[in-house]
Design goal:
With 545 residues, this protein is an alpha/beta fold. It has 3 domains: 8-73 and 307-433 and 468-500, Rossmann fold (3-Layer(aba) Sandwich), CATH 3.40.50; 103-291, 3-Layer(aba) Sandwich (Rossmann fold), CATH 3.40.50.10490; 511-544. The protein is 48% helix and 10% strand. The strands form 3 sheets. Strands 1-2-13-12-10-11 form a 6-stranded mixed beta sheet, with helices on both faces. A hairpin with a 2-residue loop joins strand 1 (44-47) and strand 2. Helix 18 crosses helix 19 (451-461). It is globular. The N and C termini lie far apart (57 Å).
Length: 545
């Protein structure tokens, strides 16, 4: 099942959008609301416990119709069918892209190379369930007979960012196990964590598909050496688990076969938290909550698969993003979750979005003539309001932003939550409306400021507004709603990649620096330094003293 591989810039819809942009680029959001009293209702999608209001965007009904026409012209529907049915859409690596299969129903049939993968997926889920329940209950103990109190996840990239983000996000639902994540090859990172650990009560989860990733294996080896200062070689079997496919390397390390969980080639690392890579999630919050996360993601999969495009949340958000990226020239998007629990969500999506769609060659092997991946960044509100919001409000750059909020707080502090959400709603309104010179004059006049002072301050206190935002308002942060939220952005990535005609599921750009690092490590460890540019050479000489 092959993709159409259409250059979007050659489509009729792209040409129409270009003309439409020229006609509408100076239209203010306030004008759009004034001309259509039903705008908010017409540009809001209600689904399950989600409300997605995209009315505060520089779009009209015609804009959305043209974007949907673009999606149709590039064959989005057929691409979605290939995506869900296991088509080899990761062509450069010869793989299917089936993270959606990890949260499918037991009766579903999804085939890879003629084999239904669902029975194997559920077998691994059952293994995760029995293993995690044994650890959490204290049935499975450490080498001295003490129950485990701490879990350390050792991985990097998708083997770290996803589990770490989810464990933070679901902290309200955590059990008694303390959870740490070791990712950076920086030795200071791992040694700071080791200071917090008791070798008798700590379980280590090593996550590496090949069991050869430099950062992960270096950290795992350092931790193993520390552990063996307090235990015997055979005790490794009681304290280490692995998520990997390299059974030989795992056995050499000393990990017991019953503590090994598989990974699959048809799941990319940055989309793997739904698999055994999420073992630490299940340990931290319990298997039932991990399963709730999967169920929420599956519900979003079904919405994406079946909803009409004009009522399809991932499709609409992806197309609006393309509108800003390719026609307005916006280079970045901000993600502002109004909950501290989602503090790592922007960093998680940085990898998901920028590693996936940061491509400059199309599916036909040609250099693209248009912009592709957006730069993703953000921090939780209200902290971010006291940091970078100045740039969004009054800077020279157009920065579309997604605001993510919840109707209910988890701990039930109504006063705090009302203040938080007052800021949530106020910021999108302020970004849209801005503040006119007339409003500023009245405000300054009301405080009895002289005309000369007003004239001086006036240009600094005017806000032009017209800053676009999406508002995602969800009933409550639960494992299920979090699963739906993550899956929403996964599908947004897919839609954008299809429209841009790029391969979203390879990451060759990650490899070059890693290859050079191996060479330079030899230069550092040996007496001779090889051939390098003059800058790198002088830096290496300075480093080696």
């Amino acid at each position: 099942m092959k993709l159409l591989k259409t250059n979007p810039a050659t489509t009729k819809a792209w040409s129409k959008l270009t003309s439409h942009f020229k006609d509408t680029q100076h239209t203010h959001l306030k004008e759009l609301f004034e001309s259509d009293p039903n705008r908010a209702a017409e540009f809001t999608i209600r689904w399950n416990d989600f409300i997605v209001d995209f009315s505060k965007n520089r779009i009209s009904k015609k804009t959305l119709d043209l974007l949907l026409e673009l999606a149709e012209e590039i064959g989005l529907q057929k691409a979605m069918e290939a995506y869900f049915k296991g088509g080899e859409i990761n062509e450069t690596e010869g793989r299917s892209v089936l993270h959606t299969a990890l949260r499918a129903k037991k009766e579903d049939v999804i085939t890879v190379e003629g084999t239904n993968v669902i029975p194997e997926v559920f077998a691994v889920k059952e293994h995760i369930k029995t293993f995690t329940e044994a650890i959490i209950s204290g049935k499975k103990k450490g080498h001295t007979g003490k129950p485990f109190t701490t879990v350390v996840n050792i991985g990097i990239g998708g083997s770290d960012l996803g589990p770490a983000m989810v464990v933070d996000a679901l902290a309200f639902y955590k059990n008694h196990l303390k959870t740490y994540f070791v990712s950076n090859i920086d030795g200071d990172h791992v040694n700071e964590i080791l200071k917090e650990l008791d070798p008798e009560t700590t379980l280590f989860v090593v996550v590496s598909k090949t069991f050869t990733t430099q950062e992960t294996l270096s950290n795992a080896t350092t931790i193993k050496e520390w552990f063996l200062q307090h235990a015997r070689q055979e005790d490794i079997a009681s304290h280490f688990a692995a998520v990997s496919t390299n059974t030989e390397k795992i056995a050499e390390f000393g990990i017991a076969s019953e503590n090994v969980f598989p990974m699959w080639d048809w799941v990319g690392g940055r989309f793997s938290l739904w698999s055994a890579v999420g073992l630490t999630i299940a340990l931290a919050v319990g298997y039932d909550h991990f399963d709730g996360l999967l169920k929420g993601a599956h519900q979003m999969d079904e919405h994406f698969k079946t909803a009409d495009f004009d009522q399809n949340i991932p499709v609409v958000l992806a197309l609006i993003s393309i509108w800003y990226n390719n026609f307005h020239g916006a280079e970045t998007e901000a993600l502002i979750p109004y909950t501290q629990y989602l503090s790592r969500f922007p960093a998680y999506l940085q990898q998901g979005i920028m590693e996936s769609n940061g491509k400059s060659v199309d599916q036909n092997g040609n250099r693209v003539s248009y912009e592709t991946g957006t730069i993703i960044w953000g921090e939780p509100g209200t902290n971010s309001q006291h940091a970078f919001f100045q740039l969004i409000h009054q800077g020279t750059k157009l920065i579309p932003a997604d605001f993510i909020g919840f109707k209910e707080s988890l701990h039930g502090n109504v006063d705090h939550h009302h203040k938080l959400m007052a800021n949530f709603f106020a910021q999108t309104e302020a970004l849209m409306n801005g503040k006119t010179a007339a409003q500023v004059k009245k405000e300054l006049g009301d405080v009895s400021m002289g005309q000369s002072q007003i004239d001086i301050l006036l240009p600094f206190k005017v806000f032009e507004g017209n800053k676009p935002t999406n508002t995602l308002l969800i009933d409550k942060l639960t494992p299920q709603s979090l699963g739906s939220l993550i899956a929403l952005y996964e599908h947004k990535i897919f839609v954008q990649g299809i429209v841009w005609n790029i391969f979203s599921y390879d990451q060759w750009g990650v490899e070059l620096g890693k290859q050079l690092a191996k060479t330079i490590l030899g230069d550092i460890q040996n007496s001779e330094i090889g051939n390098h540019d003059s800058s790198t050479l002088s830096l290496l000489q300075f480093f080696k003293g």
